[in-house]
Design goal:
The protein has a domain at 49-282 and 290-320: Lipoxygenase-1, domain 5. A hairpin with a 5-residue loop joins strand 1 (2-6) and strand 2 (12-18). It is globular. It is mainly alpha-helical. It has helices at residues 49-89, 95-100, 107-126, 131-143, 152-158, 177-197, 206-212, 214-225, 238-260, 263-267, 285-289, 293-299, 305-318, 328-338, 345-373; strands at 2-6, 12-18, 30-32.
């Protein structure tokens, strides 16, 4: 467990790290940062081996949480349940199927490969869990995934951040590019989804029609019971349906893109973020305070050739740039071009909706560039959510 302080100027500063959380900090090995603020001198930090070791513990925990829960479970496995449930209950000509189908490309085959090869032949060999512990960890993450509370505005709010674009403009959040980008992205996708739903439902009776739609209600039941996403929402109004569909697209496109395509940057250099500790944890603060460079080195997978190579190469393999024809903006453009000659009825409506969707995504490109430029000097550009970089589906 790591305690951070977010300063008003946007600096995120680590205050304390609990290396082995056991019920409370007092019963655990807890160490505090000798630098009380980001402005304090960094002199001596390079040889502060106890603190560097504790930071490594935090990075290992983050590696496990990110790869097994945030990435594998909350993106790949949750979306797979949506895909299977939709195919079981919703006809291909239904608006729900039509909206979601483009965002399923490759996902099922990728997940099958992850279960059959990636996890059992690679991931399980480089983490500090036994296979049984890893599967239990993943199962717990899946069963506790809260679908509705993971909607972008809800997710930001429950984690203590503003859920409006205006509030996120405060200097305090200038380095939180994810929040500043994902909120307008959510709004653009939801606007597109609502408009498309209204091509199938009458605006005046939409809420009643959605509540009575057998396929929608079957979908809800199948996701909950067959897919075991117990917090999937009741869908009684058009807004409920729009939120649920937006969430499904969000997971498949911008969310997965953000948690997948920066893995090589954050994890490719193994000493900075190893997947496991290779030596026992200290049992007391007094023992930790005596740690030297060799103690940190022994905790790294140095000398474990297969583990080291997998830990460095897997993030690299998973971070290949999205092909231009599989980006979210290319999808929007292709939908628009397909309908560009339509002049009447629903065809014209879809033409205008997809044109607006494409132009909105293009507008986000500029906005995201400014968000990246406004981060602290020296920050790595944050362009992973540029619509030309955002994959239309879980592709890798």
């Amino acid at each position: 467990m790591t305690l951070f302080q977010l300063h008003d100027d946007g600096k995120l500063h680590p205050i304390a790290i609990v290396c082995d959380y056991k019920v409370s900090m007092s019963k655990s090995v807890t160490i505090f940062n000798s630098r009380m603020s980001p402005q304090d001198s960094t002199k001596g930090e390079a040889t502060d081996w106890p603190w560097r070791y504790a930071k490594t513990c935090a990075q290992v925990s983050d590696w496990l949480l990110h790869e097994l829960i945030v990435h594998l479970t909350n993106a790949h496995f949750i979306e797979e349940s949506i895909i299977v449930a939709t195919n079981r209950t919703v006809p291909m000509e239904h608006i729900v199927f039509k909206l979601l189908y483009p965002h399923w490309y490759k996902t099922l085959s990728l997940n099958a490969a992850a279960r059959d090869q990636m996890v059992p032949q690679a991931i399980k060999d480089i983490i500090g869990f036994t296979p049984e512990q890893a599967f239990k960890f993943i199962r717990s993450g899946y069963e506790n995934f809260d679908f509705v509370q993971s909607y972008v505005p809800n997710d930001l709010k429950r984690r203590g951040f503003p859920c409006t674009e205006e509030e996120l403009k405060q200097p305090k959040y200038k380095n939180y590019a994810y929040a500043k980008n994902i909120l307008p992205m959510w709004k653009v996708i939801r606007k597109y989804v609502v408009s498309m739903l209204l091509t199938a439902y009458n605006k005046e009776t939409a809420d009643t029609d959605v509540a009575k739609d057998k396929y929608v209600q079957d979908w809800v039941r199948e996701v909950r019971e067959g897919g075991r996403i117990k917090n999937f929402p009741d869908i009684k109004r058009l807004d409920d349906l729009a939120d649920a569909i937006t969430m499904c697209i969000h997971i498949a496109a911008p969310f997965h893109s953000t948690v997948n395509y920066l893995q090589n940057f954050y994890q490719g250099f193994v000493p900075a973020k190893p997947p496991a500790l290779c030596a026992p944890l200290p049992t007391s603060l007094e023992q930790l305070k005596k740690y030297k460079e060799q103690d940190l080195v022994q905790a790294l997978p140095i000398g474990r050739q297969r583990q080291w190579l997998l830990a460095s190469q897997i993030p690299w393999l998973l971070s290949f740039k999205v092909a231009s024809d599989r980006s979210l903006v290319s999808f929007a453009l292709s939908q628009w071009v397909t309908k560009r000659k339509e002049e009447k009825g629903v065809g014209r409506q879809i033409r205008d909706i997809t044109e607006r969707f494409y132009l909105d995504l293009r507008g986000l490109q500029k906005d995201f560039l400014f968000v990246s430029r406004d981060m602290d000097e020296g920050s790595i550009p944050y362009m992973v959510m540029d619509p030309t970089n955002t994959a239309v589906s879980i592709l890798i």
